[in-house]
Amino acid sequence: MKYKMETMFLHTEDSDLTISFPGHDITYPVHRSVLTKTTPYFQNLLDGPLCIHGHQWSVRDEHAEPEAFKIILGHCYGVEIITENVDVALRVYKLTDLYMMDRLKEKCFNHLIDFVKSDPVNAEQLLKFSYAYNFLDLKSAILTCLSKIHKRHNKYVMFSNLLLNLYPEWRDEILSQCGKITELSFTESWMYPKYTLPYENISPILQSINCQEPGLGYFSGCVSAKVLREITWKNASYNMLSLSLCDSKQAEELASALPDMREDWYFYLHIPYKAVSPESFNYWPEVTRLFLA
Questions:
Q1: Which of 3, 31, 62, 268 has the largest CB neighbor count within 10 A?
Q2: Are 66 and 21 in contact (CB under 8 A)?
Q3: Does residue 201 lie within any of the structural domains?
Q4: Confidence at residue 94, expressed as pLDDT on a 0 to 100 scale
Q5: What are phi and psi of 119, to 5 degrees?
Q6: What is the band of 62 on the pLDDT scale with cuts at 50, 70, 90?
């Protein structure tokens, strides 16, 4: 039976309905009996009280362009069509939601996440889509996928560039998730991190007010003393800001490693010169907010 349905796919033999798309010259011959058994949406559309009675169906749904709709039809006939085009895959996902095709929607969902795994740059487009159509499960899966990528690989160059291109609220959510990953913590000392964020990407992100709160936990594990020493354009404000993102032990190690650390920096950070006190770090959030603003 399945083989027979596959052979019927896009064949005009016994077809009793032709699907067309406004603005496109492509048409698809289909069989009402096949489509109505696939989903309640098609059942009502093609065989319900208010069904289409003619032999023509002009599909006017927003995302129903021919290439995406062909994948929808293929599923109805037991034919699996996989697209490597992100735009088409997103259209298919929206249509599966509209047509209540749960099985195909799940497959498409996993395929979209695979796009992020293969190239995290795709995350921005997928996040925009998930926010635009309120697909919260897709959004959450994308953020989790990005976090796992960082847990396993050193891809901070790509990730920091991606963050800069995202809307502030999206970036905050990603930073918040990444901040919870234990792999970002140091194994021995804050001076020798497991991963290091390239210094050319640090400053513009740190200067964003929007990543202030969720960003603190994330970046406290990314700016090493080695990186700071290599920043030729750094100034007192930058060093003070970096120190303000650390806990007491991290700050003590970092301050000791900076050869150009001056006594007045300790004064402005409200910490004793060459003697970091954990209690004094209660003042640091205010210093952080000062420079982030």
A1: 31
A2: yes
A3: no
A4: 96
A5: -155, 100
A6: confident
| Unique residue bearing structure tokens 């954990």 | 278
Domain ranges, residue 42: 1-114
Tokens 């792999």, located at residue: 183
In the structure, what pLDDT confidence band is assigned to residue 91 with cuts at 50, 70 and 90? very high
CATH number at residue 62: 3.30.710.10
The whole-number pLDDT of residue 131 equals: 87
Strand-strand pairing, 27-30 and 56-58? unpaired
Label residue 274 left, alpha or beta by phi (over 0 means left) and psi (-120 to 50 means alpha): left
Residues 281 and 247: beta-carbon distance below 8 Å = yes
* Sequence letter at residue 154: N
Share of the chain above pLDDT 70, in %: 49
Contact call for residues 206 and 219 (beta carbons, < 8 A): yes
Q: How many helices and strands (H and E) does the chain possess?
A: 17, 3
- Overall domain count for the chain: 1
Structural domain contains residue 61: yes
Q: What is the pLDDT of residue 120?
A: 84
Read off φ and ψ for residue 189, nearest 5 degrees: -140, 155
Render 223-244 in DSSP notation, one character per residue.
Answer: --HHHHHH-TT--HHHHHHHHH
- Helix ranges (H only) for 119-167 are 123-132, 136-152, 156-165
Label the pairing between strands 17-20 and 27-30: antiparallel
Does residue 28 form part of some domain? yes
Query: What does the pLDDT read at residue 144?
Result: 83
Residue ranges of alpha helices (H) inside 179-270 are 202-206, 212-219, 225-230, 236-244, 248-257, 263-268
Could you give the count of Cα atoms lying within 13 Å of 217 in the half-sphere of its Cβ?
A: 14
Is residue 276 domain-resident? Answer: no
Place of tokens 């970002």: 184
Q: pLDDT digits over 141-171, tens only?
A: 988 887 777 656 544 445 556 666 667 666 6
